[in-house]
Amino acid sequence: MKSRTVISILVASTLALASMASFAQHGQQGGGADRGQQADRAQQADRDRAYDHDRAQDRSRTDAPDQDRDQNRVQDQANLKDQDIYGHEFMTSAEFDQYRKEFGNKNTEEARLAYQAQHEFTMQQRAQVQGKDLVPPGQGPVYGGELMSVQERNEYREQLRLADSDQKRQQLEAQHKEQMQVRARELKIEVEEAE
After folding, report:
1. Distance separating alpha carbons of residues 65 and 57, to the nearest angstrom
2. What is the per-residue pLDDT across 136-145, written as a single tens digit (0 to 9) for each?
3. Within 13 Å, how many C-alpha atoms sit on residue 146's CB side?
4. Is the pTM of this model over 0.90?
């Protein structure tokens, strides 16, 4: 009986050791697979974070087109040529110098935006008082401009200047062209293309 007990203990011990060895071996192989899966998960998480970051940036751009437009309008104003400053035709040489100096002294983006907005308002007021066209840099004659008042031309130019996308600008131009063609038909005249 003692020998049977000893043999049973030895068999049980051997089976237990074999089982533990098998489990350990499987654990090591599985551990390698787990490490590979963990690495894959980590890479996927990195890709997801990058994707989320890119989406957030895209969202902030589309949610704040006015901010992007304003930043583009303000870029490097202090170094512009006279004719590239908004409302240049209503400014004196002393005002150009003052404009550059004041703009350069603004320490924050908000201060520069506020200064630029005030300058634009002042130029719009001058154009209105003088009854003259205010042509923003980069814009030329207006289609059907001869059929419009100075105020209408200036308002239209301002809409184009503030359009936040090329698509919006093209839409404004198409609507304007249609309106001018209606006016021209009513007056029985032809409208020449703006150059």
Report:
1. 12
2. 888 888 999 8
3. 9
4. no
* Average pLDDT of span 78-97: 87
- Residues 6 or more apart whose CB falls under 8 angstroms from that of 157 comprise 133, 134, 135, 136, 139, 142
**89 Cα distance to chain centroid:** 31
Which residue stretches of the chain are H helix? 2-63, 65-74, 93-105, 109-130, 150-162, 166-187
Q: What is the 3-state secondary structure (H, E, C) of 78-112?
A: HHCCHHHCCCHHHCCHHHHHHHHHHHHHCCCHHHH
110, 146 in Cβ contact below 8 A?
Answer: no
Question: What gap in Å lies between CA 35 and CA 30, rounded to an integer?
Answer: 8
Sequence ranges of the domains in the chain: 2-63, 67-187
Q: Match 């997801």 to its residue by tokens.
A: 48
DSSP conformation class of 133: -
Distance, CA of 51 to CA of 45 (rounded, Å): 10
* Residue in the structure block whose two tokens are 């970051």: 53
Q: How far is CA 184 from CA 146, 160, 178, 189, in A?
A: 10, 22, 10, 5
